[in-house]
Amino acid sequence: VKRIRTHHLREMKERGEKFAMLTAYDMYTAATFDEAGIEVLLVGDSASNNVLGNETSLPVTVDELLPLTRAVTRSTRRALVVGDLPFGSYQRSPEQAYDTAVRFMKEAGAHCVKLEGGREMAGQIELLTRGGVPVMAHIGFTPQSEHALGGYRVQGRGDTAQRILDDAKAVEAAGAFAVVMEMVPGDVAGQVTRELSIPTIGIGAGNQCDGQVLVWQDAFGLRTGRMARFVKQYADVHGVLLDAARAYADDVRAGTFPGPEHTF
Ligand code: KIV
Ligand code: NA
Question: Which residues form a coiled coil (predicted)?
Answer without folding.
Answer: none
